[in-house]
Amino acid sequence: MPKGNSNKSTGALAAIAIVASGFVISGPAQAEPVQQTIAQASLCRAANRSTPVFEADSTISSALLLLRPNQQVTLTDIPPAGSQFARITVPVSGYVQTAVLKACGGPPPPPQTACRYLKQPPLVKVRREPRIVDSPSNVIGQVYQGERVSVLLNPDGSVKSAQADGFNWVAIDPTRAPLFLPPGTAWLFNSVVGSSESNLGYCY
Fold first, then answer.
1. Which value, to the nearest 10 degrees, does the dihedral of the CA atoms of residues 5, 6, 9, 11 take?
2. Would you state the pLDDT for residue 106?
3. Which of 80, 91, 139, 153 is least enclosed, having the fewest CB within 10 Å?
């Protein structure tokens, strides 16, 4: 083969090798954003109701933010089975109860109640109407400190409440513990209007 053709052939082979090696090198770089997107999607969750983001993995720690129903969050990692809290980085760094998280894009479940417990005082009367009237027809039961109740939720996930007689009242389900009464709506006062102190806390 003539020497000139040999040089051309060598140059062509070298060009092909460079182009081929370029595709091999660029392959992983192109796949990396896709892999990152998949990883981010696997860490995506959404709130199934209005729920707080806590500063630590405890419901008695400070609440940093109140998530809206269906608002998305990003987990730092997948929590082990049975974990009560998941750590998140978006929209704020903190902890969310795993029981209120659902898959992103999934239909929201229709919760009708949420668990709360009586922090204070030692005893609170349960009334049929949100009024300070101690008649036998209005007082239907009582809740002791530490006992859990099921507060009623509105369709948007907020707690059903009312203001009357200088108190903020919360509606609870009287058919559940600790009352076990016939169906209907029961009320207990959660706080004095204008006060930051509440009688009920989040269950944990």
1. -110
2. 57
3. 80
> Distances from the Cα of 79 to the Cαs of 71, 72, 82, 85, 198, in angstroms?
19, 17, 8, 8, 31
Asked if pLDDT for residue 21 goes beyond 80, the answer is no
Q: What is the 3-state secondary structure (H, E, C) of 32-67?
A: HHHHHHHHHHHCEEEECCCEEEECCCCCCCCEEEEE
Sign of CA pseudo-dihedral 193, 196, 202, 204: negative
- Please answer whether residues 172 and 150 qualify as being in contact, where contact means their C-beta atoms are separated by less than 8 angstroms: yes
Nearest to 123 by CA among 52, 203, 189, 193: 189
pTM of whole model > 0.70? Answer: no
Beta strands of 69-111 (E only): which ranges?
72-75, 85-90, 94-97, 101-103
Burial 132-161 (b: 16+ CB within 10 A, else e): eeeeeebebbebeeeeebbbbbeeebebbb
